[in-house]
Amino acid sequence: MQEIVVTRAARCYGVAPAQLTPLDGGHFTHVYGFTRDGQEYVLRITPPNEEMDARSTLAYLEWMAFLADGGACVPRPSLSAEGRLLELIEGEDGSYIATVVEKARGVLGQELPLEQWTDALYEQLGRVVGRMHALAGKYAPSDTTLRRPAWDQIGNCFHPGEPLEDAAVAARREEVLRAASALPTDAEGYGLIHADLHFANLFVEPESGRITVFDFDDCAYGWYAMDIAMGLFDILVLHPQEGRQAFAGRFLESYLRGYLAEKPLDVCWIERLPLFLKLVETGVYTQVYRYYDSQEPDADPWVSSFMGGEPDRRARILGGVPYVELDWRGIWERAQSSL
Predict the structure, then answer these.
(1) How far is CA 182 from CA 145, 177, 225, in A?
(2) DSSP type of residue 30
(3) Which 8-state DSSP code applies to residue 177?
(4) What is the predicted pLDDT for the residue at 32?
(5) Using one digit for the tens of pLDDT, what is the confidence trace for 249-270?
(6) pLDDT tens-digit profile of 10-49?
């Protein structure tokens, strides 16, 4: 990272470069922490690239600010000294994007041991997501050019945006995509979603029960059930165990108790979770199968857990094996009756 870019970015937000502490968490984005007036913040500096431009960044920052104003548990964006949600910093190789948000507290959801997850925390997670989705129905960008794209117009876990050379799996994936494209996009079930809501994109404070969702770079218009499916999908990869079906049912019922307390969602969308689970299953397979090496199981534990097993992931996809089999309606009914 060019020192002049960091210096200029820091000054835009009223801090000295010496106050910045490098943080983990960026792929090509450079991330720094700093404290101002007793509040911790995160500064992100994104180099010039084709995937994230100023307008798309402004679009998701505006959405995050709306969520925070509505009481959703998301990091609030901080304005620069000039009152802007982002600043463009000129470097030797083009314009860098600088943004600042309040720092979320807690530990990453994926790093919290399973024994520290409780039904109350699963319920709180559902409540957080339900609140976001309830606010989505009231949101309109300040400018039509700041409307986020649909889920299948950008790259994400549901829509990798890259070719799948495995023809047999590609055929299965096309079946799932056709089924999804036929779904209604009514306001109750479809709106602006996070679209990447796995457990590495939330912070958890086990003592207080607070859960904060972050990393809205991939937010897009899609079915609300996609965000629910992502949580169920990821926790079953993170915590593979005997009694998988019972554990999944417990998680989803607790999650829906919180979710439905914030946002009504017809049972038909819960009954469609197998479709969204298959969509993300085949999407993630598309993203990881090229570099997965079953002979090196420790290279990436998450990928190994997802791809491995008996039968392995490819065989399960080709065999049409459901990601998990649950009494979807019964789970929704029990969660609904608890309200």
Answers:
(1) 27, 9, 15
(2) E
(3) H
(4) 95
(5) 999 999 999 999 999 999 999 9
(6) 999 999 999 999 987 666 789 999 999 899 999 999 988 7
Task: Give the DSSP H/E element, type plus range, for residue 31.
Answer: strand 30-36
At the topology level, CATH places domain 107-337 in Aminoglycoside 3'-phosphotransferase; Chain: A, domain 2 (3.90.1200)
C-alpha to C-alpha distance for 242 and 191, rounded to whole angstroms: 36
CA distance 128 to 72: 7
Distance CA 43, CA 20 (A): 8
Q: What is the pLDDT, as a whole number, of residue 302? A: 92
Residues 74 and 55: their CA atoms lie apart, in Å, by 20
Domain boundaries, the chain: 3-102, 107-337
Q: Among 182, 77, 73, which Cα is nearest to 125's?
A: 73
- The domain made up of 3-102 has a fold known as Phosphorylase Kinase; domain 1 (3.30.200)
- pLDDT < 50 positions in the chain: none
Q: CA-based Rg of the chain, rounded to a whole angstrom?
A: 20
Question: Which of 91, 192, 205 has its CA nearest to residue 132?
Answer: 192
Looking at residue 300, what is its pLDDT? Answer: 85
Note whether 120 and 108 are within 8 A (CB): no
